[in-house]
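Blackboard transcription, Thursday session:
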Amino acid sequence: MRVLGIETSCDETGIALYDTKQGLLAHALYSQIKLHATYGGVVPELASRDHIQRILPLIDQVLAQAKLKPQAIDGIAYTAGPGLIGALMVGAMCARTLAFALQVPVLGVHHMEGHLLAPQLEVNPPAFPFVALLVSGGHTQLIEVRGIGKYQLLGESLDDAAGEAFDKTAKMLGLGYPGGPKIAACAAEGNADRFRFPRPMLDRPGLDFSFSGLKTHTLTLTRQLAAERALQPQDIADIAAGFQQAVVDTLVAKCKRALKATGLKSLVIAGGVSANQSLRTRLQASLAGMGAQVKYARPEFCTDNGAMIAYAGACRLQAGQSDDLETPLRPRWPLTELPPL
Amino acid sequence: MKSPVPLLAIDTSGAACSLALCDTQGQVWTHHQAAERQQAKSLVPQIHALLEQAHMPLQALQGIAFGAGPGSFTGLRIACMCAQSLAWALHIPVYPISTLEAYAWQTYQSTYARYLAVALDARMGEVYWGLYQIQEHSLQTLVPAQVCPPDQVQWPQAYQDQDWVGVGSGWQNAQAFSPWIQGQMQQLYPDADLKAQAILALAEQAWARGEGMAAAQAQPFYIRDQVTHRS
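(Written on the board underneath:)
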């Protein structure tokens, strides 16, 4: 079964074709990062305006890459949530209309299930069951994954998502958008031990996170330094390094706790922040010590992309699941509400 | 007698889901339903139902028209994405039609008024507006669509002292326009509701002029481009 995947939940237009026998046939992405960089964050109306200009040319591009005609599409998967409602609507209208015109089934896919399953596109995919750390601009969640659709929430952020904290801190430090790669690049030049940063919620049991206090701590520290003298590039690099290390320490500690609590030995990290090299390196080292391993997608499939939606959709469409054309979008959609395969 | 052009017209620029279909025999089938915040859900099923009602296969269509704006940004994108996708799948052209022109044409059809001042509520204390004239059964644009507060509408002197008819939700607060403009109006239709038949009629004219475009090129006419402030 060949499935066209359409991702438009935020600021990337991602299109892909996945074949359940041959694997990923083609994928293409248009990132709106430059469009939103001027504003220091995603402007929803501008995101929607851009998606509608990109979708069909990207579909043409992936069909050409795969040397296929539209009639070769057997099913269509699109991101139905969570995400920006206006942006989701553009992808949904395209998917539903194409499904109607091509007479193929259509399915709204959960964006985070797409992220969670993205490592399955790799040569050596993780086997079920595993613990997943979903860590992006909108989510920080630990989930026990027993199979597709068999998800149990172990813990989540009580306030800002980790990616959101990266974005806000980068903006505060004048590093620009998107915050994750900007902070990581700046932190590479910094001394993480120069300033003391808290490790939120490590002193209490449980698997929930909190990152807003860390962001506030960074703001206070930056203001205190700036009151004494003008911030130097080295100051900013040291703050970025300290902040990143605090986030990474917190994520690593909670992942280890989750593995111990579930008795599982396999961790999957997914979502935009899973591309962070410091997080990957620290997890590999820490988990090796407890006989566990960590797996993740290639960097281009850590951020939003069409391939993960095509894959997640293909798994469910092939199992016979599909939506009618009136299925509502779900801008807020708990992952645990998904039906199991 | 000219042969009919099988076209589908879609409008979701306002609170309705409005469709008009010209079948292969030239018969026009319509569907118009209030659908505020439901358009993304109901549009495709309603197109399906209208085609079934007309006993017409989707593949018989030769063009897709849509109300391109101005109007609700989300509504414009719903119709645009639907039109783009249908046209892409069927390899047929798209006809983006100005909603202001469609209001003008619809009002001309029902009142024979020849001078039409269309104003739509653009929120934020502004109106989308444009001036249109009918000449030899054809719509001419005198002032193209723009957006501004009603009291700042610039009315070219050349177009005064005609029998102007005001159409559209922007006239619900007619007192917000300058007294001079209010004095130009012979009649107001502030509660007019745009029907897709007007989009269809203008699309047939655009088709005759060969103005169709490739699916991906068809985009909404937002008119208001300032949607945020730089930080």
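Lecturer's comment: Chain B has two domains: 7-98+194-217, 100-189.
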